[in-house]
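fyi for ur records
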Amino acid sequence: MAPAAPAPRAPFHVALTGNIAAGKSTVAELFRGWGAAVIDADRIVRELQEPGSPVLAAIVERFGREVLRPDGTLDRGALRRRVLADPAALAALNAIVHPEVERRRAALVRETAARGARLIVSEIPLLFEAADPARFDAVVLVEAPPALRRERLLRERGLSAEEAERMIAAQLPTETKRARSHFVIANDGDRAALERAARRVWDELERRARGTGL
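which gave:
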């Protein structure tokens, strides 16, 4: 009898995180371009909050129709202002959204692995606040100084100074996350500097995914 074929090797699974406006989405796109299969938790959130979804229904039940636009879609700005001013409301929103996001993300990871992906990157903004970093083979943190992140929020997202401060304060400090990450990518310079730093980390992730450099 021929020996059984070896079981396929599980993909190397990376968590990519970073506080708001640190630049993690830019790094995710770089990783995607270099060959990673990227799963975006923010995109999952948007899909789960579409009209007719159980998640949106639960949000409306908890926060009222004031968080909806006239067309029935979620008014993210109104919801953001509501929960950032009230820690209990933020905790309630997280309890509605995060378990469903994690279920969907886990399903996408399984589907991606079944297609033969060798290196999967889950982009998870609230990794340390709402997920379990220990479940990943490596954690990559993208960081930038708070003043720079604040400026990006004002310039690129059109937030008020108060909204920007509240969004920054709602996440754990970068220092706490750095101590629990395997790799840190600084995004305090230009795009070329970020790409060089990300490439160094990517090369090491690829070595680990091949089973070398451990």
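The beta strands are 12-17, 37-40, 119-123, 138-143, 183-186. thats all i got for now
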